[in-house]
Amino acid sequence: MVIDRKHSSKFEEGFAVSPYAVADKAYVNMYHHHDGYPQWQGVQIANWLLAKGNGCQDGERLTAKLVHDMYYDSCYLQRIDHFQCDIEYIYIIWSGNRDKMYISCWNVYQDKCEFVLKPEKIISKYMEDMEYTDFTNNETRFDHQNKRIHSEDDVRPKEYSKKEIADFNKVMSHARQIIDILSQ
After folding, report:
1. Using a CB cutoff of 8 Å and minimum separation of 24, what contacts does 31-34 make?
2. What percentage of the chain exceeds 90 in pLDDT?
3. pTM of the complete model
């Protein structure tokens, strides 16, 4: 979720507020099917925010870029007031001030705030020896997923036919149109 930081001031818990209490303020509710734990998704979000100034943007632009960069085959946009029943963690990116960017992590199973941290602190506390997406070099989660799939299947890069490339470009064009609509 991406929520403007001003909404946290209405709650005694501040950024540690339950996501259910502020869900109606979110720009997006994005469900990732796999690996929501802090050592993976928390670090991925933190890395993404620090890459190329992603955290400098207002909430609406930040959300559009987040959807583009974090999309992969098991990722879904959902109604703002709807949370998947099988999730363990909900992350909120509190937008509105680059120098005071915070991410909160709500543990759904324990019904408590796991942490409220700056991106740098999440990385220093939770980063492990994993193959994280290289957002700094413009890699997206979709690119990262496909790179991993192809590297497991074949050492050589696959050569695509003109039709496969045209089909891919058509799908990407539709995806960009969806992102444009969502970011308006």
Report:
1. 31/75, 31/76, 31/77, 31/78, 31/83, 31/84, 31/87, 32/70, 32/72, 32/74, 32/75, 33/74, 33/75, 33/76, 34/74
2. 29
3. 0.74
